[in-house]
Amino acid sequence: MNDDLETQVCVLQSHLDGMISRAKKNEEMLQQFQDLEMRLLSLNSLRELIEHINDDAKRVFNLDSLSVVLGDEKAEIRQFLVEDGFRFKRYQSLMLLANTSLFKEKIGLSHRVHLGEASSVLVKNFWPENQKTPKTVALIPLVRRGVYLGCMVFGSDDEARFQFDLSTYFLERLGKVLSVCVENTLNYEQLRRSSLFDTLTGVNNRRFFEQRMDEEMMRSIRTGDCLSCLFIDIDFFKKVNDTFGHQVGDMALRHVAEILRSQLRSNDILARYGGEEFVVILPTAEEKKGVEVAERMRQAVAEAQLEVADKELVQLTVSIGVSTFVVEESNTSDTLDRTALIGLADKALYQAKKSGRNCVKGGGKVKSQPSRSKKVG
Question: Residue 211 has what pLDDT?
Fold first, then answer.
């Protein structure tokens, strides 16, 4: 009798130890999950959000692989990420789908988490082709206000990991939190873009340009590198508007902006200054390099033709003025003269237009002024 009681006590103790162990693991899991939630909710940048999802979610949920799929019908998300320096090659698990109807078609209207073997649950459109297919998956819809933003797929090489009868509380909660985060960051990016980007051409606006010009001139003062400024004007733009109408004029602005952007490095800054005028900042570019880039841009615009209604071709050209900011000795100036640099490029542009248009003119250099402390010393 005593032996039976001791056996029962041992069995109960074993069950109790197991329950305590599972409770501790659940508590640790909950803490990790809450930490993940707080990090995600604190982010404003879409780039940071996607990077944290990839890095943190794999760790917190002990995943072998994952994919993040976002609807991007107008390619706005891709543009946001490109402008923010997102590393697409490193985070190849990100997928941007133009066909947003796939989410409703493949996941359904219930918005529930789908669990099970990849062969039966995983939709090929939601998994990168160059990534190994997992054994089991959890497909988590990202829905906000009844609209699909995308989905996230957790993958495991363990056949028993994501079974259909597994509790989905954490996954459903993560899906809701992440949906809020995606919506918030997209709203933030759109607001930022509207305040710093020209909505017609998709390039930076004058406000952004002036802000970055000050930053780049300060950088030049610290490093001693030169900086070139290009002032660009579309030749006879009024004639284009008068002949073909303002709709074609808008097409011409977008056309030229795209060509100009294609000739620049990733760290160069292109902005619409106003009307048919554009400006460019070329960090670390000396005067000769600035003129070379300007000539390349002029030639690219001249060689491209804009197709308008009835397949009629419009030939566009640009005139460009170039100026260069020169720092004779790094860290010896604390004064900026943005207006002088832009003004010099503007004068050079005037000379280019006076010389017959469709040409490049160099306007010379603006030298940094020694700081007061340097003078006193």
Answer: 87
Q: Are 352 and 360 in contact (CB under 8 A)?
A: yes
**Three-state DSSP class for 319?**
strand
- Cβ-contact 287, 261 below 8 angstroms: no
Which of these, 298, 280, 287, lies nearest to 231 by C-alpha position?
A: 280
DSSP state at residue 97: E
Which pLDDT band, with edges at 50, 70 and 90, does 376 fall under? very low
315 contact partners, CB below 8 Å, separation of at least 6: 302, 305, 306
Beta-carbon contacts of residue 191 (< 8 Å; ≥ 6 apart): none
3-state DSSP call for residue 277? strand
135 in Cβ contact with 109 (< 8 Å): no
Pairing of strands 136-144, 318-326: unpaired
Residue 230 to residue 287: CA distance in whole angstroms: 11
CA distance 148 to 69: 11
Classify each residue of 104-120 as buried b or exposed e, where b means 16 or more C-beta atoms within 10 Å of its C-beta. eeebeeebebbbbebee
Selection from 301, 314, 209 nearest residue 260 by Cα? 301
Q: What's the whole-model pTM score?
A: 0.56
- Residue 112 DSSP SS3: coil
Structural domains of the chain, ranges and CATH numbers in brackets:
43-196 (3.30.450.40), 206-376 (3.30.70.270)
Find the farthest-apart pair of alpha carbons in the chain and give their distance in angstroms, rounded.
113
Q: What angle do CA 189, 195, 197 make, to 5 degrees?
A: 80
Per-residue pLDDT tens digits for 271-297: 999 999 999 999 999 999 999 999 999
pLDDT per residue over 170-215, tens digit each? 889 889 989 998 998 888 888 777 778 888 898 999 988 988 998 8
